[in-house]
Design brief:
By secondary structure, this protein is of the alpha+beta class. The chain contains four helices and 14 strands. The protein has a single domain (30-249), classed as Lipoprotein localisation LolA/LolB/LppX (outer membrane lipoprotein receptor (LolB), chain A, Clam). A 14-stranded antiparallel β-sheet has the order 1-8-9-10-11-12-13-14-2-3-4-5-6-7, covered by helices on one side. The longest helix is centred in the first third of the chain and has 17 residues, at 2-18.
Length: 254
Amino acid sequence: MRRSALTALAVALASFACRTPLPPLAPLAPEDPRPAQLLASFAVEVEARRGLRGRARLSVDAAGGDVRLRGKQVIVLEKPERLRVEIKALFDQTLAVLVTDAGQFELLRADDQSYRRGAIEPGLLWETAWLDLTPSDAIELLLAAPSIGERATLRAARGDAEGGVELDLAGGDGQLGWRLRFDAEGRLSWLERFDAAGTREWRVEYSDYIDVGASMFPHRLRLITAADTRAEVKLSDVELNPELPGELFRLRPR
């Protein structure tokens, strides 16, 4: 037992020692054109990404590593708050369907045929998917297109030797509101949002960029919330900006 423990510790230390450190960051010169160029390109992408249809594999783990959710989903969404999530079983049977639109939600569960509807509640996605997000936040993060706001201003810019750029953005009150990291190709690597007190609300990391016709789009995202809930979404069969009839976001006539 002692030998096994020592072996595990040695492997962990070796892995830590071999881990490639992140490139160091240094302030960019005021005349460096990259921050303005990156923000302009990012704003165009945010405006262009209106909706999405695809499949997702979702895993959610609580602080401490407790598994909260593993599952397959079919997702359809459209800004600002149109969302349809079909939760699937192993053989693609539908276990539940959640839709949101115009401030209202509907939730149908197949196991007991229960049905609920009403105004969108702050804890709706926590109840159904263990995600501490509003539907509109979830939609923007899945689209990799958060609404930073027209009044956001550049507060600081840093870069590394590999061409990556990290930007701090302030809101209308002048306080840090967002931190974004772009890779050397100008793709969003991660972003963080901060509240008025400077506390990080969440961090989302993007990877697995794939050409979907109109642009390169991330097919994997990792989310860390203030409560240290960690979620990973792996997307497939992604279609950007499809035509989405309103009936998709209703389960029963209203």
